[in-house]
Amino acid sequence: MKYLHAAITEALRVYPPVPIDSRVAVADDVLPDGTCVKAGWFADYCPYAMARDEGLWGTDCRDFKPERWLDEKGEFVGMDAARFPVFNAGPRTCMGKEMAYVQMKAVAAAVIRRFRVEVAALEHSGGGEVSVPEHEMSITLRMKGGLPVRLKRRMK
To answer: Which residues are listed for heme binding in this entry (predicted)?
Structure first.
């Protein structure tokens, strides 16, 4: 379950459900790096871009690597929420974070137990195969047309 937790977390890092988020300052403030933010100004951050920042995640930042979340003993190691803001941070941390992980693990376990899942060839809307799916940008990040899969029932 520790590796599954790491794999889910890595999937959320690489493809965050909310790819960009905005906040409005209710009062003048100063960010930790010294940047002044005036009341009424928007402050945006982009978890999608942050996941592809070598300064935050290293040269393998574009790779799906669940192992980055595990220590040498195979124990899950969380990251600072400012670096991994998928569930927000500070007083705005998602109250449903732990329940979301429970649900994701339950669904993954149920599917893996019953089926062998293969990703079908991904096709670009302009024709031809691609290795990375196209996305529809909206409030939540979605794969354009969904993820084509082939499910094969496991034998009992």
So the answer is: 94
When mean pLDDT is compared across 12-16, 93-97, 132-136, the lowest value belongs to 132-136
Is there a binding annotation on residue 36?
no
Structure tokens at 104: 């994701």
- The answer to pTM > 0.70 is yes
d(CA 71, CA 73): 5
Give SS3 for 77.
coil
Distance CA 29, CA 42 (A): 12
Q: Which residue has the tokens 């899969």?
A: 149
Helix, coil or strand: residue 83: coil
150 and 120 in contact (C-beta within 8 Å)?
yes
Identify the helix (H) or strand (E) that includes residue 12. Answer: helix 2-14
Nearby residues of 54 by Cβ (< 8 Å), 6 or more positions away: 61
